[in-house]
What does this fold into?
Amino acid sequence: MENQPTGSPPLRIVVIGGVAGGASAATRARRADACAEIVVLEKGQYVSFANCGLPYHLSGEIESRDDLLVTTAELFWKRFRIDVRTGHEVTRIDRDGCFVEGTDHSSGKSFRIPYDRLILSTGSAPVSPPFMQPPCENVRHLWTLPDMDAVISQLRDHAVKRAVIIGAGFVGLEVVEQLAHVGIRVALVERGDQVLKPLDRHLARIIERDMADRGVSLHLSADVTGLRRDGDRATAVELADGTVLETDLVVVGAGVRPRVDLAVAAGLPVGPSGGLVVDRQMRTEDPKIYAVGDMVECHHGVLDRPLRIPLAGPANRAGRIAGTHAALGESQPMGSVLGTSVVRVFDLTAACTGMSEAALDANGIAHRSVIIAAGHHAGYYPGAETMQLKVVYSPTDGKLLGAQGVGGQGVDKRIDVIATAMHFGGTIHDLAQLDLAYAPPFASAKDPVHMAAFVAENDLESHPGIVAPGIDLAGFQVVDVRNPRELVDLPLEGAISIPLDELADRWQELDPNLPTITVCHSGKRGHVAACWLRGKGWRDVRNLTGGMAIRMLERES
Amino acid sequence: MENQPTGSPPLRIVVIGGVAGGASAATRARRADACAEIVVLEKGQYVSFANCGLPYHLSGEIESRDDLLVTTAELFWKRFRIDVRTGHEVTRIDRDGCFVEGTDHSSGKSFRIPYDRLILSTGSAPVSPPFMQPPCENVRHLWTLPDMDAVISQLRDHAVKRAVIIGAGFVGLEVVEQLAHVGIRVALVERGDQVLKPLDRHLARIIERDMADRGVSLHLSADVTGLRRDGDRATAVELADGTVLETDLVVVGAGVRPRVDLAVAAGLPVGPSGGLVVDRQMRTEDPKIYAVGDMVECHHGVLDRPLRIPLAGPANRAGRIAGTHAALGESQPMGSVLGTSVVRVFDLTAACTGMSEAALDANGIAHRSVIIAAGHHAGYYPGAETMQLKVVYSPTDGKLLGAQGVGGQGVDKRIDVIATAMHFGGTIHDLAQLDLAYAPPFASAKDPVHMAAFVAENDLESHPGIVAPGIDLAGFQVVDVRNPRELVDLPLEGAISIPLDELADRWQELDPNLPTITVCHSGKRGHVAACWLRGKGWRDVRNLTGGMAIRMLERES
It folds into this structure.
């Protein structure tokens, strides 16, 4: 692992695009090779900016715009001798001649730059639905710094009182939160039937209910048919069901598409999910050309096939690998990606890794799952915040397929722990035996991760099994082991009520020959009850996972 | 996995000791076998209490004493039909006759109880140094609820203004914090030369400095030679160096010893670290007798041999395994234990997993390490708190041997993630490729775990290497790449000052033939500088890991 011998000309590494892994690739290449000529060609004004931070400047939570400028062309030169050229749009890659050509928008001149190694980091672009044509000054994406500046000038100059956010993905929810924080009445419009598609519906419902409680107007399964306009301003958003949402501002987050035109024109192949095909060293089919970030397909750890996963973490790690390999000809391989994500929405955190049950169903992969409710630290220590933690696993061997959490503090920790176990192909049995840090302010001796794994182990070993939150209870003997006062707020019709602490005295009131389901609020007492009945010789008794708390969410229309 | 056939007499499972895994074993046995007779014999008054929560009731942070009573004998009967007998001290196990005998302290009568399966959970007892004899009413352990009650009655009845805590382990530091919170002047006395022995010294120093800044009087490498007494009260603690610490209260946390007398008397073997020998199903040499908790040796994941690891998490997990196996004759195996721990001390969190460098040295295991400083979330999002994260790994293959973190929020998450990777025998390369959740309020696109792994990968691949915080810099060309204003507060004599952003212009001022060490504040810029020089063909250039921030702590006497 040496640099080229003294005397040979320096390697010329050209990077197209600073964001989404390009800057990371360039600095890493520099660390690996102090003599290489490294050029970054960036179409926009900024070599790198904190795109994940844009929503937080809308409300002033991130006070200074400068904080979003992660680095500058000047610093790149001073510190790394990396030659950043902004306003340089590459229009063609010549693979035979090993050069790129394009236009310098600052001078209007064209340029041609040779490369020994080329790293593509052209990222992705937000999808513009038809209603965005012709453009309105108050209908915007939030994808770049200029996008953000445009939204902020709307907020500042137009006394925005109402806003419509279109698209309930991560960025959409962050914008909802930030605009609500500054007193704007927000409506959220989403084509799908839930927010946060990577989550299964019952967990997404928790976020939806909380937003609704905070006055956000939620429109799910809603198609935007058009805008009402007044000159170059939109005044309302029209939905297919006839709803008209009057508004002063529209922010559109309707998904992204990879920017692969340049690469495709150069004959580089694109995979089934629309991203460029690369190997574990981020090399395209052309061994001199690498690609990273939103524009490529990474290896998905659960699906075990390439998939486009447009997230900042994998983009950065891929940049490091591409930069190293471009400079040295070798590198560690890129790891599998699980789509691990997290978002804060008001006081709630939602996070996930791997695949949801809905996504597994869509891919024909068998799965089981458990949902538990648990405090983020010991219940006896003040301030424990409840989380719902769902773990999805293979019915054959308990291999982890995914996890989702919604709650207060500590959700991100549990999802990161499970994502780490999934990196190693771990099972629910591994989760059950993890040696995690415990002290009352941080966790419980049995962490939520352990608790979920224990329930999953019980399920797989059928002592006793569980049933899914949405199950139709008709035809079952349903034993509700909640306390009488819990039934007042949330009754369960047709169930036989025997509080858990009376079950040992009263279980003989039940019919051991009927298929039976036990139910409590969160699933914990129901499990104890199911164990008891099964232990008494009952053949067919199962527990409702997640309890009434989750069932209620699942069955909301 | 069936219960015994109908008609056969129920299995009788006897558990000795409720805390430290015993209650967990009993409830788990009940879930596995609804018909078993399960008896818990507990010497004390409480079947189970939150021993890790005791320090937090001293200050009232945990308001109600009742919150510490995790469960009660009454609930155990009502819910689980588990027969808890408090005040029952077992004095002998008869393995041939399969019974235990002892004294019921409430009635004064002796008892004899047969068992089919016996689960030992007798825990550990705090060590009482010689000066605790004869006892003083204001010199106390903090191990049981009665201990806590005694300390609280001191606080309440004796206007305690000064306290001496003896022993700077986890509990000792929690007590320091809690007593300081209620305005008591606290002195902390420790025989070793640092607090929190599981941490390496430089990280422990961060906690020590913070405590000192808060007015805690710290006495390290200090032996207690005796107490000054006034009747049955201590008035001062005398140290070997002649220091006399006047005090109103002494809390002693001088380590624990396993309670194995009963088991040893029954002929069950004890391992080299003093705990009972058990297999992965928590069975002792006698297949009818299980043992869990502080009294046993678990398999240590790094040392790959049995070791006593008295922590609540492993005790609970072991209880679950023993209870299952006792009831069913089969269970998942107990996982390896890494000693993962966490403690909050004022606004700082300290956490660790696996082994420190000091412990590895003591065991003759080769290791390397890196230390990084990083924010717990994106720097551009407000409120990022700094952590020092140390990762220790094998010099041959990068296998993880341990990790330690000290800082504000998020330390526990990173240690749990690394502990999870260690469960699978992971390497620094695994850490570098983990797919962790990122959004600005929670993490950075390159998480502290990634950053530490990247530095470690650089180290192992020698581009460039690193040197340890305590290295003697004499004989090296030391290049200090900090900015001039950083040098004012913390100068580094004998170093050549070239701020990083001038290095690309000025590196030729340096002598490429001298062994060279680069230095900055946290190690990050030093790494960039070392890469630069090495890239210019220098053969011997390394970076000071952790930078001046850690070196300063390491070299404090």
Summary: The longest strand of chain A covers residues 368-375.
